[in-house]
Amino acid sequence: MSLLTVPRTTGIHGRKWSQYESSELSVRYAILSDIHSNLPALEAVQDRLASEGIDRVICLGDTVGYGAFPNECCDTVRSLDPVIVRGNHDYAAIEPGAERWFTPAASKCVLWTREQLTEENRQYLLGLEPFAAVEGAHICHGALFDSDYYTTTPREAAGSFRVMTEPLCFFGHTHYAEWFTESAPEGMPVQHPMADGGTLETIPGRRYMINPGAVGQPRDGNSQAAYAVWDTELRTVSLQRVAYNIKAAQEKMEMAELPWNMAARLTMGV
């Protein structure tokens, strides 16, 4: 039985988004972001989640891009029936010309991915919206006012806090595992880097922006795949890391003749 229903509505600044409402009082969500066509990392996270008692998956975008397993990762994500939003690489993979906004190496990955995608997976990415909401949480790729915006500092996070109507916002895009806590309506948010993982116990009346980090291309100095678990009953969000077969991901990228610097950075988590 599906835990969530999916009516369509209009979101922040009139943008179209998806609204999901839980049909259960307590739900444990797995929060995944920036998988970036890295199947070994995604499978390692799946294996870990098998013992976590997860009810539903939330995906914050960029299922594809950089890595050499775009269809395998799309197929896996689709099988999870997630609450999902579109990332900038998801969009570029289906929108000719969008690669011009990327670095030369990233652009080459975009063009390769576009050629590899099955029509079924292309249509899946085409149907994604940039924003969504689960009861109690906003979901976006970069920021609530711009899905492509990089939220890396308290000042940048403040823009999303200004338009938040839920106590939580889950976002990705930067590939850094961390959270921001609203200190006061007038003050700057407080930033909490969590590259090695950690658990946030949310307080009623406070608001939080939470980045689970990247499954497939971490950039916070920790090469392990990152994800989070949100427990709505305990009011906790746990940021976690899991080791995966980096060499397997790199070898597949080398076989696909993708830029080596994109593969090499996986070893360093940068």
**In the CATH scheme, what's the topology name?**
Purple Acid Phosphatase, chain A, domain 2
Assign the structural class, choosing from mainly alpha, mainly beta, alpha/beta, alpha+beta, or little secondary structure.
Answer: alpha/beta
CATH homology superfamily name:
Metallo-dependent phosphatases
Please, how many domains? 1
The run of helices and strands is EEEEHEHEHHHEEHEEEEEEEHH
Unreliable stretches, pLDDT < 50, 5 or more residues?
1-19
Biggest sheet statistics: 9 strands, mixed
The percent range for helix content is: 25-40%
What is the CATH level 1 assignment?
Answer: Alpha Beta
Q: How many helices does DSSP assign? A: 8
Quote the beta fraction: 15-25%
Assigned CATH architecture: 4-Layer Sandwich
What is the CA-CA span between the terminal residues?
40 Å
Shape: globular
Average pLDDT score:
90
Computed Rg:
17 Å
Oligomer: single chain
Number of strands: 15
